[in-house]
Amino acid sequence: MTDRINILVPGDDPPQTADSPHLERLRAYGDVTLYSSRPADKAEQIERARGFQVVINSRGSVTWRGDDMRTLPDLKMITTCSIGTDMIDLAAARELGIVVSNQPGRTAPVVAEHMFGMLFTVAKRAAFQTAEIRANQWTRRMNLGVQGKVLGIVGTGNIGAEMARLGRALGMDVIAWTFHPTPERARQLGVRFVELDELLEQSNFISLHVALTDDTRHLIGRPQLARMKTDAVLLNGARGAVVDLDALAEALDGGHLGGAGLDVFPDEPFMADHPIKHCEQVVLTPHAADQTPEGVDLLNGGAVDNVIAFLEGKPQNNVAS
After folding, report:
1. CA-to-CA dists, residue 243 to 13, 118, 204, 266, angstroms
2. Which of 65, 170, 226, 264 stands 20 to 30 A from 48 (CA)?
3. Residue 185 vs residues 25, 55, 192: alpha-carbon distances, Å
4. pLDDT in tens, 23-49
5. 228 with 125, same domain?
6. Are 76 and 128 within one domain?
7. Within 10 Å of residue 275's Cβ, how many Cβ atoms?
């Protein structure tokens, strides 16, 4: 592409890309329009995108389905500010010739650090005990040990690999499950691959890091929760729909699990008055695992890198092309 193009950030709320110095790098290629609020509905989203060739999708709450993209004949490329791509209909994008680029592994250390923070917060009952003290209650609960315990990692991509490294550094016994285990990958990660049921039964802490697909939707439901230790902690840093949230709330309320840490939810923003919000030993963060200054800068830079690579005829990180 040699002509100047129109580049859209369709709904940067909460702010991700706004004021990023990386946007300046796009001035040589085209004009950037950034909306600081989410579209009120699909009609407004489509209207915002008309005439734009490139979309920087800075927030997963802005979704692109087949019908959306079919109404936008000028659209040629979408880049995410994320690893996940479940907000985009990849099959439809491929059919329409729209390149979709994500950012695999770019913020894996940042996300893994957050998930380990959640692990410790749940294990040491920090959120619960803080709330009790604020309410002038001196309620103590038995904390959970971490060192020497079994960490089960479900999904061994970049984030899962970093979780394994941190777990080993803490002296944890790290086991893992993936759809396609190999001895070479086990050696690389320093883990032992096991069947999912075995992982659930043996682990003290279970951390989820799989992509959301038809095969992983509700990968953790009532039967899987029932296999876990009664003091096990479940962490979800994947996608909300990987866990049956109703079943998880029931297990926690019934005293079957030791706690949970969730950074992702089936619907985001998660505004529903769901029973999980009232469970005693749960820590919740608003899909914020990569939201450090370093993480935000990495994602903004990666999105701009993807756009420039596409415009220069060398698309990278393609998940649909």
Report:
1. 25, 17, 18, 8
2. 264
3. 37, 35, 10
4. 999 999 999 999 999 999 999 999 999
5. yes
6. no
7. 14
Residue numbers of the domain that contains 76: 5-106+293-320
What size, in residues, is the chain? 321
Instruction: Give catalytic status of residue 48 as yes or no.
Output: no
239 has catalytic annotation: yes
- Predicted confidence at residue 3, as pLDDT, reads 79
Task: Give the CATH number, domain containing residue 183.
Answer: 3.40.50.720
Residues 9, 45 within the same domain: yes
> What are 190-199's pLDDT values in tens digits?
999 999 999 9
The burial of 59, by beta-carbon neighbours within 10 Å (0-12 exposed, 13-18 middle, 19 or more buried), is given as buried
Question: If DSSP codes are grouped into helix, strand and coil, which group holds residue 149?
Answer: coil
Q: DSSP 3-state assignment of 176?
A: strand
How much is the pTM?
A: 0.91
Selected catalytic residue, list 113, 250, 268, 280 = 268
Instruction: Name the pairing type of β-strands 173-177 and 282-284.
Output: unpaired
Tally of domains in the chain:
2
Cα separation, 209 vs 203, in Å, equals: 15
- Residue 49's CB: how many other CB atoms inside 10 A? 23
